[in-house]
Amino acid sequence: MPERQEAPASQETPSYLWWLVPLLLGCVSVMTIQVPPMLDWPLHMSQGVILAHLHDPSFVPPSTYCVSTFAPYHLFHYMVRLLAVVLPVQWLSQSTLLILLLLYTASIALLLRSYRADIRLLMFAPATFFGYCYIMGFAPHLLGLPFALASLACAQMWWRTRSARWAAAMTASLLLGYLCHPIPFFLALGCVGLRLLVDGRSSLRFLLQAGAWLLLPIAAAVQFLFYLQRLGQNQKAWFTALYPNWNQNNTFGDSVFLRLKLIPAYVLGTEHLETSLVLVSSLLLLSLLGLFWLSRQDTDDSPADNEAPAQETKPSNTSNSVTLGTVVAVVVLWLGYLFLPDAFMKGNNVYARLIQIALVLTLVCVPALPLGLRMAQRLYLLMALCVCTFLGINWMYQYEWDRHFDGFHEVVQKLPKGSRYMGLLSQFKNAATLAQMYRGGEARYSFAHFFHMPVRDCNPKAQHPTFKLRSQPAGFSPQQHAKYAPYLLVYLERTVQRNRRTFPWLFRNAPYKLIAKKGRWTLWKHKSIKSTKPSKR
């Protein structure tokens, strides 16, 4: 094989620039978009804001919401509660997203370092942050993901050094993930356990040590299963009261071919497979495969530089300490993405959430290549251009979404604090709770009907009469529903004809009068309301 030519070190691009520029672009994206295109995000954020102002009767009318005992899944909402005390509400969403992005990037950096993988691959962090879970707005999952990745990194460091502090850090990371969200917690616990079991199978002493350190997370996982089972029964009864034929079966749904086709959409976060996205994703994956090939060539030509563990078992004979257990965990994650049912463990589209951890854990299999290796430099340059291109496209998409909310904040300021109101928003059905972040009160619809949320309706059936209107605004009837929502937040359609179909009551002498309008956002008040005091529940 011909000898590789290395450029002088002075002519090389510093390693940190490969990922620092994409990270800065990602930070700019989350800080310049006031309303991100995240489905469930405002619903989770409003939970934290209500927690922060629960004892302010002008913001939250008494006997409207009740606080549940702190439980797994609540850590994100309590983090928002603390931030809501020190930050103005107009900066709360952006600041929370920035914290999540930095935590996610730091966890991937720790994972790459623990495996001695190429730190330049950190450029994937800001791009994959805007993936499936971001678009869906799964806020607790986004907070749990860094702890899941950190636990994998700590497990690798413990394997390499046999230091008790890394084992303690692994256990602590798992337990923090347990407080965030069950899916990243169970994935991390499963990957850590599988990896240590496969790699330590020849040493009974090591397996006993691993079992001891994982005993508390395993106990937490068992408790979590009982907790989810109890919640699932309560929530099923709630939904069955609304939809007698409602059922949630573990059906497969999407075909394997479709799931392969959706990888670019789930990794980089978009609902449509645009040509530009497919091209960017294809170039990224091809570049990654090229790096794998180069790393194998480099491994064949040069001796491995491993740090042997202090005791019996050696982790690997590859230059970046990738073990058989790690490879098995990666394969299991990808197979789970391809073959798990759509509905699994009472969660929808669980398989789509596996892909982020699967891709990140795949990155650790690429060892650090010499900075002067020209082919590697070209591949990294191509990857960096793809990542920056995606971040630019993503920012433009988010900017276009944000423009739909021009006038929203001006209209919401006319809503009296502590009011009960309903959102008839068609394509922005969750924006009602976005208004709740600013004005408090009781929003229809909100996540307060879910039994696993920290803030719940004191009356469990409070949202029953209006629940279906969250996605069917044309079903609103002033005679039937006005008593449940004295104020209406309405996003008008583009044409009069479409408004007649979606909001027929507007053209029938409705008992509501317009009190604010900006762009297509409008606020309506029932004519029977004589003052701005919040109505009784």
Structure description:
The structure is a single chain. This protein has 537 residues and is α/β, with parallel strands linked by helices. Helices cover 55% and strands 7% of the residues. The protein contains 20 helices and nine strands. It has helices spanning 15-32, 41-52, 75-86, 89-114, 124-129, 132-136, 139-161, 164-178, 182-199, 204-242, 256-261, 263-268, 275-301, 324-339, 350-363, 374-403, 408-412, 431-439, 478-481, 496-502; strands at residues 65-67, 343-344, 347-348, 420-424, 442-444, 455-457, 487-491, 512-518, 521-526. The strands form three sheets. Strands 5-4-7-9-8 form a five-stranded mixed sheet. Strand 4, helix 18 and strand 5 form a beta-alpha-beta unit. The chain starts with 14 loop residues before the first helix and ends in an 11-residue tail after the last strand.
Structural class: alpha/beta
- The helix/strand series, from N terminus to C terminus, equals HHEHHHHHHHHHHHHEEHHHEHEEHEHEE
Radius of gyration: 26 Å
Strand tally:
9
Summarize it.
The chain has 537 residues and is α/β, with parallel strands linked by helices. It has 20 helices and nine strands. The longest helix has 39 residues, at 204-242.
List the helices and strands and how they pair.
Layout: H1 15-32, H2 41-52, E1 65-67, H3 75-86, H4 89-114, H5 124-129, H6 132-136, H7 139-161, H8 164-178, H9 182-199, H10 204-242, H11 256-261, H12 263-268, H13 275-301, H14 324-339, E2 343-344, E3 347-348, H15 350-363, H16 374-403, H17 408-412, E4 420-424, H18 431-439, E5 442-444, E6 455-457, H19 478-481, E7 487-491, H20 496-502, E8 512-518, E9 521-526
Parallel strand pairs: 4-5, 4-7
Antiparallel strand pairs: 1-6, 2-3, 7-9, 8-9
Helix pairs in contact: 1-4, 1-16, 2-3, 2-18, 4-7, 7-8, 7-9, 8-9, 8-10, 9-10, 9-14, 13-16, 14-15
